Amino acid sequence: MAGVTLSHPDKVLWPAQGGRPAVTKADLARYYEAAAPRLLTHVAQRPVSIVRAPEGIDGERFFQRHAMPGHSPRLALIDVKERKPYVGVSDAGGLVAIGQSGGLELHPWGCRPGDPETPDQITFDLDPDEGLDFGDVIAAARMLKPYLEGLGLTPFVKTTGGKGLHVVVPIKSDSRSRVEWDQAKAFAKAVSEAMRKDHPERFTTTLAKKARGGKIFLDYLRNGRMATAVAPWSPRARPGATIAFPLSWGQVKAGLDPRAYTIADAAALLKKPDPWKDFRKAEASLKPALKKMGL
Ligand code: ATP
Ligand code: MN
Q1: Does ligand 1 come within 6 angstroms of the Cβ of 41?
Q2: Helix (H, G, I), strand (E, B), or coil: what is residue 258?
Q3: Whose CA is nearest to atom 20 of ligand 1?
């Protein structure tokens, strides 16, 4: 498939669950090939951490950052000024090669393609404490949206395939607008702290699980150099073969169910227009926003 030979195509990576069919390695590879045009927009030419679970989601798993011995020639190598290069992907064949090696999730840096030193998006990871329902996450995302818009930015939103939502802001990275990683992270932190101050009953910015107390953890730590967030359209190594799914804000309302977006639904989902089609077009400079935040 896409020039890659699959071994054990019938291996079940996601067992059947809750009325959902089992997903095999061949299904995953077909998914990667079909979703490539949309997925590559968000991962190509960026260092990417891969969650590998060669025996499926019930087996051992590990995060792969570096090329491994015998890695597929379809993968790209990206120099990030470390001892060893990081893995990257540049085409559908690379994605299928990742699937062939049991790569179930793709977590790129938030950098400009081909330029690991330059942030080109800011991710707010909304993590609900146990016991909160998804309605609380929806409400939280809808509160963050106008705050970011007030700073001149255009936020997008996606499911993670898990418990929360990610709110993501594309930022300009041309020589006039370019910011450093520390500025991107400081900005995300300042916005998160401001949200917590405005709604202390709803948000926490403390990483420790025990500090969550029925709140939503606004995780701004996705924004440093080398930090990652799951890519839109990436599958998740979680029951039901969910995918992290790009939404329109109109979909972020009561009834939104992240479990509705799975590899089994992909053919239908890929036929619909991409709500993140204008993600890059919506880039804004972070510099005025930094100033507004007093940074
Ligand atoms: P959920 O909505 O269930 O929280 P998530 O993708 O946001 O899904 P988190 O556990 O909140 O999952 O992690 C946020 C991000 O942090 C991940 O998308 C991933 O990119 C990164 N991450 C998490 N764990 C690791 C890890 N062990 N190594 C590297 N990156 C990680
Ligand atoms: Mn999260």
Answers
A1: no
A2: helix
A3: 229
